[in-house]
Amino acid sequence: MEKNQSDKQLNSITLLNQMASDPYYLFHFLAFFSYIPVRCSASHVLSPPFSSYLLHREIQAVIAFSLLTAIKMVRKETWEAFIADTLFFAKIFLFGIALVVDYHLALWYSLVFLVVYTLTQQPPYQGIGATLQLTPLQLEALLTDGNTSRFWLVEYRELSSSTCVQTSRVFPELSITYSNKNLSFGVVDLGLFPNTAEKFGISLGSSDKLPKYILFENGVEITRFPEMDFEAKTSTFTITKKLLCQHFELDRHLLDYINSK
């Protein structure tokens, strides 16, 4: 219990350090913070009725933003997804308030956020859990080697995809719970090895195709997620630990390993 609490505190500290040092978070913070001096300067030239009107709009924006943030905090499974949505909503509300002040200010913030989007990218989860970062050759060698794990669950991702970034902690956290001598977890970055995608029947034409998860037994693919029919029936879905556990029956694999000991 104490170990879990210390791990959570360490993860929180790591996340805070990353948010303070990473350009993606730093530039967003500077952009949002810049509204304070702009607002203070504008208050001297705005008429009292308009200042009162603007204050009411700011209070409404803060309340609406707080409610959306609370809802997203409950519904989102990863911090990366929660932060991405929170920043998105903050941009919308800041643009709306800036538009009330002056449309030139709104255009300026639009330009700033466009530059930030162009120059920076949200960093993925840094922990690796019990996963192995593999090259295609290493994966092929492990799958064909009879002395390695019977089952290999492999995540194919591309960290230039926002979806892959926002779900980047799901797989490592799963590996901590379910990794054993019979089931191993590996990650292949298709951003570094794009030619590998075609070999495993993965399309890189659209970012919503990734991440892709494939379960191998003795080097042979037995199932993958999402499957083609699942993608056709479900236009939008969120990858969660529960969803992956159910699809790959990870609890059963863990029980089989425990019973075989």
UniProtKB/TrEMBL annotation:
Keywords: Membrane, Transmembrane, Transmembrane helix. SUPFAM superfamilies: Thioredoxin-like (SSF52833). It comes from the Eukaryota. The lineage of its organism: Eukaryota, Viridiplantae, Streptophyta, Embryophyta, Tracheophyta. The chain crosses the membrane at residues 21-38, 92-117. This is Thioredoxin-related transmembrane protein 2.
